[in-house]
Automatic annotation (TrEMBL):
Gene3D superfamilies: Vaccinia Virus protein VP39 (3.40.50.150). GO terms for biological process: methylation. This is Methyltransferase type 12 domain-containing protein. Residues 52-147 form the Methyltransferase type domain. GO terms for molecular function: methyltransferase activity. InterPro entries: Methyltransf_12 (IPR013217), SAM-dependent_MTases_sf (IPR029063).
Length: 254
């Protein structure tokens, strides 16, 4: 019952938000586009790769991936988001390298098939009761030696809680707290432990951006300041995002 309720909350919220997010992606700022490009560089995406994208939504990462001449299998719990993404990619003539699946990965769908798995802003939406099982099912899809690359909010950042509560209480985005509250438990050490138990090795993290992206858009000096702050030992632990990368072990095929 707990699982059904959690998945239903997520599915209904993101179905409701699909059209709005598609518009946001289409109107994405240069700073946001550069951030995604840097993340895909961090992931070492190369032309011809087979990519599995978890929680592709309306295509924030999907479209930039496809523009790098890769083959993307995108999955999401929201059918409406997938429909919006399919329509958008057809308009851009990118849909021929895109395959979409409506799933929550409660069971494994692939085995040893993909070069890279991308999980962007999604893990905190997983049902916390079965987070390990979901990631286990996902990592089974990765080829031995393939990479899993994660873009995830850092639960230690001090602005997430007041920001989401403001959006909820003000009525600007009703339902966002239930959809996003898992971010408060999103920590690198926990994710690292889960990944290690899924036979992912050589795990490293980049603590990405301290000052919010919206300020980067207004003040040109902020990106340089962020790059400096990201290197400060204590302060970096409170970054806005975690970029995590690891490799599937050759020693154990799962």
């Amino acid at each position: 019952m707990m699982k059904m309720k959690h998945e239903q909350v997520q599915s209904e919220y993101w179905d409701k938000e699909a059209d709005r997010i598609t518009r946001i992606n289409d109107e994405m700022s240069l700073v946001a586009r550069n951030e995604i490009s840097q993340f895909l560089d961090f992931a070492k995406i190369e032309a011809g790769m087979k990519i599995l994208e978890i929680g592709c939504g309306a295509g924030r990462f999907t479209v930039p991936l496809l523009k790098r001449d890769v083959y993307v299998t995108g999955t999401d719990i929201s059918q409406k988001s997938l429909e919006a993404l399919d329509l958008y990619c057809n308009k851009l003539n990118l849909a021929h390298r895109l395959h979409l699946i409506n799933t929550d990965f409660d069971k494994p769908l692939f085995k040893n098939e993909f070069d890279v798995i991308i999980i962007g802003n999604v893990i905190h939406h997983f049902n916390p009761e079965i987070k390990f099982e979901i990631l286990r099912n996902i990592t089974k899809a990765l080829k031995p030696g393939g990479q899993i690359v994660i873009f995830e909010p850092n639960g230690r950042h001090p602005l997430y809680l007041p920001y989401y509560l403001y959006l909820e209480w003000s009525g600007r985005q009703k339902g966002i707290w239930q959809a996003e509250k898992g971010v408060m438990k999103s920590k690198f050490n926990e994710l690292k432990k889960i990944l290690q138990n899924c036979d992912i090795q050589f795990i490293n993290v980049h603590y990405h951006t301290i000052i919010p992206l919206r300020l980067e858009e207004r003040f040109k000096f902020i990106p340089a300041v962020n790059k400096t702050l990201e290197k400060v030992p204590v302060l970096k632990n409170f970054s806005a995002f975690l970029w995590i990368k690891g490799e599937k072990s050759f020693n154990k095929l799962i």
